[in-house]
Design brief:
Elements (H helix, E strand, L loop, with lengths): L5 E4 L4 E8 L2 E4 L9 E2 L1 E5 L5 E3 L1 H8 L4 E5 L13 E4 L2 E4 H20 L5 E6 L8 H17 L4 E6 H10 L6 E8 L4 E8 L13 E7 L3 H12 L20 H7 L10 H13 L3 H12 L3 H14 L5 E8 L2 E8 H25 L9 E5 L6 H8 L6 E4 L5 H14 L1
Parallel strand pairs: 1-10, 10-11, 12-17, 17-18
Antiparallel strand pairs: 1-2, 2-3, 2-4, 5-6, 5-7, 8-9, 12-13, 13-14, 15-16
Length: 418
């Protein structure tokens, strides 16, 4: 029996698992027939079950009592990586929750293979942490530790944009200099890679990777910026105290707008602090909305509403962020122009990183023959326009928005272990 090895793309928003099927990679079904699994974990307090993916989000949105965890990948490289979160009467480390999710991916991989799988190539962003090599290495080490704890004995890593390049290379007919753009939920990664049908057969591809850069900006950062600019003011963010001497504290509003920090608000101390903020606020009616959202643990639902408005504006010119729970009913209108004004600084940083990647490769933009786009955030019109404006002569190739990295990791697993 031939050994089985896989590629795991543990994403901030969605995850995939790739395997080789003969000479072609394919993605493993992870939730019913779906080949993507939303990176979400829900601890059901009513029956003590643990749900993942769409089922996790469904139970949360249906009002089941429990704790939802999303954007767990963002914990890696952050100050939360060694902290614990309260799940009923016990505290669980964030890294252990990541381990539970990786265990689910491994279980699906083994069910597909019909045997135990202990060898894997895991995707990683070019940078878990910007401009801090030690923290970046520590983040990868934590991810490896979590994977090893689930029974993976042989673990290798590959940069996510390089994996996407390997997937893209399966369809090329001649040598190309490709700019790989992978904009996911938590990071944006870029590579300039020389690809060709002949090079695809080579075992060692180091010399074909001409440049590689990444920045810790992705879809969840865009969600956070939208929420801070358009939703948090409806909850009292940046409003003055009634004595007019200062604004109310901003920290809890920032946490509510940040996917992986929302659960930190669900403590007795935070509720006590918010009631004190209400007492001092010039607009206590707005703080009442904030209290209602935190008290009802509506934070992830609010973040999901913001995310949906962002996605809607990739095609529509206008959308609305509508919140309707007892104690917090309001609407925040949003249009494409407002979206782009909110995201412009972050997109400029992303675009600057793309330009630097091309310069690192010692190429002129006109040398780039193809741009391969993957990752959900490449659908944002402003980001797409800004990046493509750097290489106007290159052909644009649409990859599998959520699956290219997983497919490429399977190809890399065959190269490394096959």
């Amino acid at each position: 029996m031939r050994p089985v090895f896989g590629g795991i793309d543990f994403g901030t928003s969605n995850s995939t698992v790739g395997v080789m099927d003969g000479n072609r990679p394919r993605l493993v079904p992870l939730e019913d027939a779906s080949i993507t699994l939303p990176s979400a974990v829900f601890f059901n307090f009513e029956d003590d079950s643990i749900q993942m993916g769409r089922k996790a989000v469904l139970e949360y949105t249906e009002g089941v009592e429990g704790r939802l965890m999303r954007a767990l990948k963002s914990v890696l490289g952050s100050s939360l990586v060694h902290e614990k979160t309260r799940i009923k009467r016990r505290s669980i480390a964030f890294t252990d929750i990541i381990g539970l999710f990786i265990q689910r991916l491994k279980t699906k991989l083994e069910a597909d293979a019909g045997s135990t799988v202990d060898t894997v190539v895991m995707g990683r962003p070019v940078r878990f942490v910007d401009e801090d090599d030690a923290a970046d290495a520590a983040a990868q080490a934590e991810l490896e530790k979590a994977a090893r704890a689930q029974g993976f004995a042989n673990i290798a890593f590959q940069f996510e944009p390089i994996a996407a390049a390997l997937d893209y290379e399966q369809g090329v007919s001649r040598e190309e200099l490709a700019l790989i753009v992978d904009m996911g939920g938590g990071t944006s990664d870029f590579s300039v890679v020389r690809v060709s049908p002949e090079r695809a057969r080579a075992v060692e591809r180091k010399d074909d990777i001409l440049a590689n850069r990444g920045i810790h900006i992705g879809g969840t950062d865009f969600d956070r910026l939208l929420s801070i600019a358009h939703v948090m003011p409806e909850l009292g963010y940046l409003t003055p105290t009634k004595d007019g001497k200062r604004n109310v504290p901003a920290g809890y509003f920032i946490d509510l707008a940040t996917w992986h920090r929302i659960n930190l608000l669900y403590t007795a101390k935070v509720m006590s602090d918010l009631r004190q903020v209400r007492y001092e606020a010039a607009r206590p009616d707005l703080i009442d909305r904030m209290i209602a959202i935190v008290e009802r643990r509506y934070g992830h639902a609010l973040a999901t509403i913001v995310e949906r408005a962002k996605i809607a504006l990739t095609d529509a010119e206008a959308a609305s962020i509508d919140v309707g729970i007892h104690g917090a009913t309001f609407s925040a209108p949003l249009d494409r122009k407002g979206l782009e004004e909110t995201l412009v600084d972050a997109v400029e940083r992303v675009t600057e990183t793309v330009g630097q990647t091309i310069r690192d490769a010692r190429l002129d933009p006109s040398d780039i023959t193809a741009v391969f786009l993957t990752g959900g955030s490449t659908a944002i019109p402003l980001a797409r326009r800004s990046i493509l404006s750097l290489v106007p002569e290159a052909k644009v190739v649409e990859g599998d928005m959520f699956g290219s990295v997983g497919l490429g990791l399977a190809l890399d697993a065959r190269r490394k272990f096959g």
